[in-house]
Design goal:
The chain contains nine helices and ten strands. The chain has about 325 residues and is α+β, with helices and mostly antiparallel strands. A hairpin with a 2-residue loop joins strand 7 and strand 8. The termini are far apart.
Length: about 325
């Protein structure tokens, strides 16, 4: 009789030798990111980490030979397999629109600036960290609302993702297991407000009940807009004229997980979006004699990831990674 599959897998897992030369790097990584493991979990996690490290090194070697336009680096998610990473942090699934939304379409005679960066105008709060919770949708939504509040009041205040996680389930949001930016805006609309991060801090779990405090109304939303689906031209106009815009992208590839710097593009990027982010601008840079345009997207994986928490994603080339497929923003 054949051995059951789990036994086979376990045996294979045990035979993989860990690289002793990486001992110091592993210990350093654990200390840096405050990682602790119980018993056998340590060897298994280290094996995953070593595999990720080798893939990162291989990519960067190829980058130095001109095969890629961006570099990778180890980060605090380095002990996760691709599947675990996606299950843990990519919490966005596009759905049929149920909430009433207005449509933002490109207008032909609108001239947009060549470069936009809302960070320089004071619209963007410091990069946050969603931790081990699929709450990207909430971070994307607070980012757009923070920009809107700044525009209206001249004050930049961090808004509460936990408020959205704990209180918007009945709209179809699923806490740490995913949600929708438009339904987050709908919650703020229906609720008549959203608390600040300070009053309602982030705890990266979805087991507590709603603690919204109506005395702290740090944001409002009176209408919700979707950007014409798939149109990078409309998205550019929205970013240029409105402020930071919530977007979703396909973030499921290894190179996205461990992105460090440069203009990201990948043949593995699809149009199936699964991760909520915030478009805070766009620009163009000279890359080996060519002009390459990019979106500037704020992530919620801490400043360790990417360019101080941001990614520059290839722009204007077939809606790369589906960046214009689910773009939305709130208005007052
Ligand atoms: C808010 O946006 C409007 C137009 O969208 C703009 O004219 C105004 O200067 C903005 N206010 C601030 C504080 O940036
Ligand atoms: C939200 O709306 C209320 C009522 O119109 C107003 O008093 C409050 O200042 C608004 N808050 C923000 C942050 O815009
Ligand atoms: C790149 O863009 C700059 C500024 O828009 C322009 O002057 C230059 O001709 C462009 N270069 C190429 C190679 O297209």
């Amino acid at each position: 009789m054949a051995a059951p599959l789990w036994l086979l897998l376990a045996l294979l897992g045990c035979t993989t030798a860990l690289d002793p030369a990486l001992e110091e790097a592993w210990e350093g990584w654990k200390i840096l990111h405050a990682k602790e493991y119980l018993g056998e979990a340590e060897a298994a996690r280290r094996e995953v980490w070593e595999k990720n490290l080798r893939r990162i090194q291989q990519h960067n070697l190829e980058e130095s030979q001109g095969q890629h336009g961006f570099r990778l680096a180890m980060n605090h998610y380095g002990d996760l397999t691709d599947e675990e990473f996606n299950q843990l942090v990519n919490g966005f699934t596009p759905a049929w629109q149920e909430e009433p939304v207005l449509l933002f379409q490109a207008s032909e005679d609108l001239k947009t600036p060549a470069e936009v960066d809302w960070r320089a105008k004071g619209y963007v709060t410091p990069v946050k960290n969603q931790g081990h919770c699929g709450s990207c949708w909430a971070f994307s939504a607070t980012g757009a609302l923070e920009g809107l509040v700044f525009n209206r009041t001249g004050k930049l205040a961090a808004l509460s993702e936990q408020n959205l996680i704990d209180c918007s389930q009945k709209l179809g949001n699923n806490g740490c297991r995913g949600g929708y930016m438009t339904r987050a805006f709908q919650y703020v609309h229906d609720n008549g407000g959203l608390n600040s991060e300070q009053v309602y801090p982030y705890v990266a779990t979805d087991t507590s009940s709603c603690r919204y405090d109506p005395r702290d109304r740090a944001a409002n939303c009176s209408s919700i807009w979707m950007v014409a689906q798939g149109s990078e031209v409309a998205l550019e106009q929205a970013v240029a004229t409105v402020g930071p815009i919530s977007v979703a992208v396909d973030a499921s590839s290894f190179s996205f997980h461990f992105y460090k710097s440069g203009i990201f593009s990948s043949m593995f990027c699809s149009q199936q979006v699964n991760h909520g982010m915030l478009a805070v601008g766009y620009g163009t840079s000279q890359e080996s004699g060519r002009n390459v345009s990019y979106w500037i997207l704020k992530n919620s994986w801490s400043e360790v990831w990417g360019e101080q928490g941001y990614i520059r994603l290839l722009k204007g080339t077939n809606n790369h990674c589906g960046v214009a497929n689910q773009a939305s923003f709130p208005m007052v």
